[in-house]
């Protein structure tokens, strides 16, 4: 069922947030019909036919679209901000360069870099007054493509 449909008692189901009359299901019962070709839900309520709730089968959206692209899976794993920083570090960059590129504060970028560094996905090398960040081998693998 979806977020608008819910059990509301031992023998009652709410199908919608919309007001409407209560329906009594007879001795024929009610059909629950999972399908893979639709989104949302619909309720068949023509009299005297049996009531049926048609709803998307669990996992049908994933089956229809296949596996998520690696970049999207990475975003879901570590967040869009950190995934973007990790991908951008395909070429080495300073935190200032990354902040300018993403239009974010140094603090935000620095927070992402700290988490990525603590996870062993990037390393920093001091060059004069700057720290140049680059992906590690683990970062390359997680990003799904090797650094040049």
Give the gist of this structure.
The protein has 148 residues and is α+β, with helices and mostly antiparallel strands.
Q: What this model shows, in words?
A:
The radius of gyration is 26 Å and the shape is rod-shaped. It has two domains: about 5-65, no CATH class; about 70-145, Arc Repressor Mutant, subunit A (Orthogonal Bundle), CATH 1.10.10.10. The chain is about 35% helix and about 25% strand. It has a three-stranded mixed β-sheet, with no helix packed on it. A three-stranded antiparallel β-sheet has the order 6-8-7. The protein contains six helices and eight strands. By secondary structure, the chain is an alpha+beta fold.
Largest sheet: 3 strands, mixed
Q: Assess the beta-strand content as a share of residues.
A: 15-25%
The CATH class designation of the largest domain is: Mainly Alpha
The helix tally amounts to: 6
What is the H/E order?
EEEEEHHHEHHEEH
CATH architect. name of the largest domain: Orthogonal Bundle
Strand order of the largest sheet: 3-5-4
What is this structure's SSE topology?
Elements: E1 6-9, E2 12-14, E3 30-35, E4 42-44, E5 51-56, H1 60-65, H2 70-78, H3 80-88, E6 93-94, H4 95-102, H5 106-118, E7 122-127, E8 130-135, H6 137-143
Helix pairs in contact: 2-3, 3-5, 4-5
């Amino acid at each position: 069922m979806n977020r608008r449909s819910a059990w509301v008692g031992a023998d009652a189901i709410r199908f919608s947030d919309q007001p409407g009359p209560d329906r009594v299901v007879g001795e024929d019962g009610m059909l629950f019909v999972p399908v893979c070709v639709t989104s949302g839900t619909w309720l068949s309520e023509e009299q005297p036919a049996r009531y049926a709730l048609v709803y998307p089968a669990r996992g049908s959206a994933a089956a229809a679209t296949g596996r998520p692209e690696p970049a999207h899976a990475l975003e879901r794993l570590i967040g869009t901000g950190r995934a973007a920083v990790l991908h951008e570090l395909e070429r080495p960059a300073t935190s200032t360069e990354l902040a300018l590129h993403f239009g974010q504060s140094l603090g935000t970028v620095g927070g992402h870099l700290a988490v990525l560094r603590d996870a062993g996905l990037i390393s920093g090398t001091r060059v004069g007054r700057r720290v140049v960040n680059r992906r590690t081998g683990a970062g390359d693998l997680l990003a799904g493509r090797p650094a040049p």
